[in-house]
Amino acid sequence: MTDSTLIRWIDGQAPSESSGGTTWGMPFARGSVAGAEALSVTDAGGSTVASQAWPLATWPDGSLKWVGMALPATSSPSDFYRVASDGAAAPREASQPPSGGTSVTVTETGTVLTVDTGTLQMVIERGGSTLFRSLTRGGVEVARDARLVSLLQDGLADDQGGDGAGTFSRDAFTGEVTAVVLEQSGPVRAVVRLEGQHRPDVRDSGISRDSGKESWLPFVVRFYFHANARSVRMVHSFIWDGDADRDFLAGLGVRFTVPLQAELHNRHVRIAGADGGFLTEAVRGLTGLRRDPGEDVRLAQVDGRATPPLAGWNPEVSERLHLIPAWNDYTLSQLSADGFELRKRTTSGRAWVGISGGTRSAGFCSLTDTHGGFGVGVKDFWQSHPGQLDIRDAAADHATLTAWLYSPEAQPMDLRFYHDGLGQDTFEEQLEGLEITYEDYEPGFGNAHGIARTHELTLFAYDGTPATESLAADAAAASAPALLQATPEHLHSVGVFGDWDPVDRSTPARAELEDHLDFLFDFYAGQVEQRRWYGFWNYGDVMHTYDHDRHVWRYDVGGYAWDNSELSPDLWLWYSYLRSGRADIFRFAEAMTRHTGEVDVYHLGPWRGLGSRHNVQHWGCSAKQLRISTPAYRRFYYYLTADERTGDLLTELVDSDQNFLGLDPVRKVRPDADTYRPNRGALGVGLGTDWGSLAATWLTDWERTGNPRSRDRLLGTMADIGAFKYGFLTGEALYDLDKGRFDTGRELLQVSHLSAVFGLVEICSELVDLVPDPDFERAWLQYCRLFLATKEEQVAAVGQPLEGIYLTQAHSRLTAYAAARLNDPDLAARAWTSFAEGGEHLNHESAFTLRTIEPPHVLLPVDEAPTVSTNDASQFGLAVIQNLALIGNHLR
């Protein structure tokens, strides 16, 4: 029997072209598909399409749970596709090469890899200072010697004088590749992974080399190739490993050499501005002159076509070509989210001439001639400012094009902690500080060493100068890549990610709650824009709490500033996307996943695998915990897109239980601090935020790799929790790191309002259905049933009332879960009552309205929701989503 699943374009319609191919992830029901070779793809007309499929995760029975799929590039994408399965294949990667078409081929030698999509060819050396040696299309080399570049500055001018004057040195570095791995080899998709670090660049003369730093900024670059593609996707990730007190990143970019053959008047510069607009110029312009070369000459140059032979020109122009300036250098700088500047000059040492400016550049430029050329687009260019695009030596035989991911014209990056500690040298003083600014400070912990950042670029190989309309489409595709996705109905039907249902407005009560969910997402999306939550390290995050007196979010008040996944906005957004399939929600969640997984988490050093709690700076808080780094927030994006970089982040966390040896997450408030001594056999691990994060880590790794260590630790600790006298109500258990098991003899009784609001609810829901363990299920049901129970019910069950019961609305979904599992209408009624009563502000209509504040009370007009902070939004959203899925039939 063959089943098929509809796969749609996330933006609602097919793109005009798929120049680079497409990749996505999709799930299948337990036991329905044995392996990837059972899968095939057809287009809207029913014709089979070349495809490639590979496992991303399996169910415990070994059947396929999640699969990555890829289609080749095409000039005419189908309106939709269908993925069919006969369910009978063995579990291995599978592919259907293009019928009568072209496949991606990879040729390896001891020194290079050559990848051929059928349209372009890239030669990658196995080591050295280049990311690739050459990029060729149609036998013409369009780019060569791609390399990473960075600038290190040893100080900031404004630290040396009130007028901003001062002296400092700048050192040039270039990326040195130390490892090249072919991760996928086609026939539809190939992936090459490069690793390395930046080393001093001895070729860059005139720049000081006094830093003494031999290397810094370890990086990973991946190139993605699809059959027939004329573009290559590039994903660049780096880790900040500098000393914040003396190392100031003054520039970070990717530089390409572009060979040029044609005459200067047949060399074309194209740079994207805002709203689809383009700068369309030639290195030597023929328009606007005092003498007219001829209409056919002018139109050819503007269109990017070869101009007629000189003999056919007006001789008043052709004989004076040498007197027309050649514009050698171009720059677009986007130093904020609201403004870019374009300028050009004839050569180094001559003045720059302003061209124009605008608001938000698409982050694309190309340099081509009539023989071929090269273009690059940077995703989230203005959102991740300061960025810059440089073209240099366009009048020479070999020009350079640099996509600056951090502009050298911006203030050098300053990652020092933002205050001097305020005398908080002891735990007691730090806890006092927590009482006033909500900032968990500790000397030395506000350190950015080990955070990371990922950028996505698209590299285009041209066989000439494309029409401007085609370039505009390329720029748009690089900014917002087209993506195929399964429908919410399919995602729900196969039983992934626990308790949720597709959007349902079938009753007035449901419709009202759906409206409230839409309001909250639209509000936060609007706040990102109005409050300008953009920038290199900030884009993707939101703020924690609002200050109604100043009409601003509390950006400068300790732990009330950047949210850093506090109370799981990541989960709220991803579940909102699963339910709705909305592209705007997906991209909002995508940006948050990129940010929280990279910037809010440490990727090297003593806190590797831990994340930082909310703070004025993303890395500022001394609470370095698994609740921020948890895969529970990242695995949605990994499974829905098959993104290898997110896979790296998940892999980093596999041994995160080791972190409890070096850093006790509750060291400042531990009641047994006088006697607790962490050791491999008795590590204090909380059963809420800690174990929930570990369980998400082990589950994800087991599903992805079959790792027996992760499987055994997950199943073993589940059994141990089921064996505790008080189950999850034990609060904290002693964990044996070597055995991966808890000491089941502990009879502690404690709860926390934070235990279940960082992914524990969602993970436990999945685990109960995934792996049968009656004792674990009993323990989880007990926790869900008692958390919001009456004091009398709690005493009857465990001998005493539970303390620390807050966030009632958020925890109403615990009661809802118990109601659904036990089929108890009284519990269902209590859940909805708790939801309404516990909402505080979010239980009446006035909470879902906006008022607009105008200058002079604010810098720019902004909207306020009278009572909303991010914790209200995320936990309200999750409570609504899960309550509707579990006990929606009890909603009145």
From TrEMBL:
Matching entries from Pfam families are given as:
PcRGLX_1st, PcRGLX_2nd, PcRGLX_3rd
Top-rank lineage group of the source organism: Bacteria
**Ranges for domain PcRGLX/YetA-like central beta-sandwich:** 104-474
InterPro entries, sorted: PcRGLX/YetA-like, PcRGLX/YetA_2nd, PcRGLX/YetA_3rd, PcRGLX_1st
Q: Give residue ranges for domain PcRGLX/YetA-like N-terminal RIFT barrel.
A: 4-84
- Describe the location of the PcRGLX/YetA-like C-terminal alpha/alpha toroid domain by residue ranges: 481-891
What PANTHER family does its record include? CONCANAVALIN A-LIKE LECTIN/GLUCANASE (PTHR40081), TAT PATHWAY SIGNAL SEQUENCE DOMAIN PROTEIN (PTHR40081:SF1)
UniProt protein name: Tat pathway signal sequence domain protein
User: Which organism does this sequence originate in?
Assistant: Pseudarthrobacter polychromogenes
